[in-house]
Amino acid sequence: MAIAVVHGDERTVLCAGTAEPGTRFETGSLTKTFTALLLAELAARGEVGYDDPLDRYLPHRLPGPPITLLHLATHTSGLPRMPLGLMRRSPIHSWFSNPYATFTSSDALAALTRTRLHHRPGTHVRYSNYGAGLLGHALAHAAGGHGSDYANLLNERVLAPLGLTDTDCDPHRPQAVGHWHGRPRPALLIPGLPAAGALRSSARDLLHYLQALLVPDTAGSPSLRAALADVQRPRLALPRTGNRHCLLWNLRPRNGRPLLHHSGTTRGFTAFAGFLPRSGTALAALANTTPAPTGSFVQAAYETLCYLEKTAPRSHHTGMC
């Protein structure tokens, strides 16, 4: 396990077991927050618009109202959680170890022609790994590449400028061994939907990532600085809860302040990241085991972040949202 904490002027990485600050963990759906940052960076450059239709960048179009990039980034596209054909392409023996390994970029795009939306785009929130994966393909095409170029584009526009040397989508670089019910798992392969869950990172890198989100004006190029602020802007309100959706970040009001968070899991890892811009407090937690059914690891990380927020020095409030 490895934990990164920002608390006022304090910066801390804590490790347990064999982990070190630079040990790479699979982050699962925490990848989506990086995909959101890539979307915002391209939007800041004028290369895409949030209201651009998905079919402007991908070869297949669904009948009916267009799905926009913003729909994909707020889970309001109406797309299913997983693409059609994923189960059929994954042998039974691999479903509990590497369910995405044989599902390619071509499969992900071809599935669009057979997909029926659950609702009209923009009318309901429905979490979709498929939608986040397609967003990555669209951004790669918008920047002049192919869907398989997502990892390179993310590195060029986000990871390298932020100095995140431990972070990428490469399953072949050294990383911690994941565990599922105590059994070692192979490294995750997700060639068809990398933008939804392929990223590996370390506590050291996530510390830098959270620092950049807390103080966007100190990071990278003007377009990246603008993107770091833009991903934190609420885009829609969830009924009856007071919660909001930003660009693939979840936002909960806490003591009059926004708390942004996201978690991720794979067949062998659990990850959490959260931050409170107005208190200068952030926490990331990584473990090389799949989560318990109760979600206790993620819940403990969230509660620790809330506890740190209570003790955040007033002098370090940035006033940013």
UniProtKB/TrEMBL annotation:
User: Pfam family of this protein, just one?
Assistant: Beta-lactamase
Q: What is this protein called?
A: CubicO group peptidase (Beta-lactamase class C family)
Q: Which PANTHER family match?
A: D-ALANYL-D-ALANINE CARBOXYPEPTIDASE, D-ALANYL-D-ALANINE-CARBOXYPEPTIDASE/ENDOPEPTIDASE AMPH
Enumerate the spans annotated as Beta-lactamase-related domain.
Answer: 1-294
For this protein, the record's SUPFAM superfamilies field holds: beta-lactamase/transpeptidase-like
Classification from the root reads: Bacteria, Bacillati, Actinomycetota, Actinomycetes, Kitasatosporales
Matches recorded under InterPro entries: AmpC-like, Beta-lactam-related, Beta-lactam/transpept-like
